[in-house]
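Hey, I'm writing a tutorial for new members on how sequence and structure tokens pair up, and I'd like a real worked example in the thread rather than a made-up one. If someone can provide the structure for the chain below, I'll link this post from the tutorial.
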Amino acid sequence: MSGRISSEAGVHDAPHESAHPAPHPAPSDAPGTDAPEDAHEDAYVHEDEGAYEDGPSDARRARWTATGAGALLTTAGLAAAVLRALDSVPPLVPLAYACGASGCALAAVLGSRGRTRRALWLMIAGTALMAVGDQFD
């Protein structure tokens, strides 16, 4: 079944051509239709031209999301750092919250500049750092 000629018998091991039926003609290729060949391609081009005119693009939406999430995590981290600093906890706890919040602030800045993938990973790292600070509590 490898498709090569057998050295012993001299016969071709590939399946017979009759096993694969001929494809049916496409509806636009059927006799009697006068549809141009590029009719489907023109329809796609006209559909795609106005796709992003009505709303913001995906890149802009990603930038706003990264900036907003970074700012929200920064605010939460700084609030937790201040609240933990006022309690009687080891100084490592508010420091971990503050460092995680600063990482999220940097992620918000990167997200606003379009570096959304780096901003996402920096937000994950900052949140993980805040979680470590929570474990020290």
